[in-house]
Amino acid sequence: MTRVVLLSDFGTVDGYAATMAAVVASAAPSALIEHAAHDIPAGDILTGALTLSRYATLYPHGTVHLAVVDPGVGTWRRPIAATVDGRHYVGPDNGLFTRILVGRQARIVDVRETGQGRGASPTFHGRDIFAPAAGHLAAGGALEDLGPAVADPVVLDLAEPRRHGHLIGGEVIQVDRFGNLISNVPAGWIAGLSEGEGGARVVIDGKDAGPVRRTYGDVASGDVVALIGSLDLLEISVRDGSAAEFLDAGRGALLEVRAG
After folding, report:
1. Can you give the C-alpha Rg of the chain in angstroms?
2. Do the beta carbons of residue 160 and residue 142 sit within 8 Å?
3. Residue 244 pLDDT more than 90?
4. pTM of the full structure
5. Whether residue 139 is found in the same domain as residue 205
């Protein structure tokens, strides 16, 4: 049974996500349709890209990921479908698939003519183009039947961390629903610095976040804690609270990691 997993910024109140699911089900009645999330902040492509990268590659081969965070809907941005490592992805070519595509071999096609094609509603390509393409793949259709090949997909210009000796510079790239400040600093960069009071120490926007710890339980309730999160990226959190609120920090906040 093929799985189709939906992600969007549509919310669940207006039935937009259910409409896409209905179109997929009509094309592939035996497909198992799952909903990953529909509360991505409106038009927030980066958050959509990070969210997708958390779970997409954990699904089995053959899964179809239908992801729509599309502030450019109706414009000449391309609608695409891709096959990467045995899984399929359908959505707008606006950087939403950056963390899926970069560093991997991918087959990508332009699906502009799929479904209603040029007769599609200029405000709902999720229903008229993306969902039919996802349904085609879920029903066992070939990727190449959806349209011509694409060699230059759009990827986000993500901020890169920097390091010089034992000093690492990075920035916050996402704030999750718990208020955790997720940075772009990879775990591997600070793996050589031991944990604890004498190890790696984090400063964010000039405020001390303490040493890099292993888990939230290593500090008291209400205290700031720096740790490696589930994306293998450095995060700043507050136990039983919101680091974003406590530190008055958000996306783009600068941080430093240095030997204690």
Report:
1. 20
2. no
3. yes
4. 0.91
5. no
